Amino acid sequence: MTHIPVLLEEIIQASQGIPKIEKIFDGTFGRGGHCKALMHAHPLARVLAFDRDLDAINFGKINFIDKMKEGFFEIVHSDYRDFQSSQWGLFDFMLLDLGVSSPQLDLAARGFSFYHDGPLDMRMDTTQGLTAADLLNEMREEELVRIFQDLGEVRKPYRVVRAIVHDRSEKKWESTKELASMIERVEGWKVKGHHPATQYFMALRMAVNQEMEGVQKGVRHCISGLKNGGRLAVITFHSLEDRIVKQIFKGELSGFCFNKKVIQAGEEEVRLNSRARSAKLRIFQKGRPSESEFKKFHKKYDQSGSHS
Hints:
CATH class of the largest domain: Alpha Beta
Strand content: 5-15%
Shape: globular
Radius of gyration: 20 Å
Largest sheet: 8 strands, mixed
Mean pLDDT: 91
Low-confidence stretches: 304-308
CATH topology of the largest domain: Rossmann fold
CATH architecture of the largest domain: 3-Layer(aba) Sandwich
Number of helices: 15
Number of domains: 2
């Protein structure tokens, strides 16, 4: 399945409100959908892209090779949480598209999806860190309960956790199919079309990749990397991530949250790309915008009916 970048029109619109864009940072390159569109909208801008996933890095080096040779594009195997303005300088526009990409979900060997049988890995950066199997086989029962409650927002994961601990005493957890089948058996199908393993897999992925810690650290680092008048756009797919971004933006004294209301995909985009349904966009601006740009932006988006 091709990865379709969400809220693409809104991202481009936000970037076009900046008078002159010379440098762009894409902290979650993925398959370069947002990046390609931003480069098209700002052909003279130099782009720096980060990604934790080596597959994404290789994709960028192959498919953006012409821009690399021209000096307009650089891609680095790194995590956006490790961005430092002292090393990379200041940027006019910065983008973070959080969460897992379609290619990661579709490749069984990565272990992200319960629809494909593969190893319980779930690492976005396969060169480091513990796997999902490591967590399932080594964590104490109370630690697993906390992960599923806090990150997966599963109210009562006790039966599933007890099954995990019981079964691992006989055989270590290794495959996504085994885990998904167990959860399906223990939990049962409660909501049509919503696999009972969905929230459990999401929680494991977020724990493996320390995604909450990454948002707390990375968003602040990116704000420090903005030029005066520059903007940081952050797309989240999880209520916990969105809450962190909202709080950081509201508490940051060097600028303000540019969109009064959270921006969400319209009906047409959701129809074409179901992944867009849970996407939320917030935009932070360093300093203050011109009055005309501020009014123009809010006239377009504040009538969307979205809630902050």
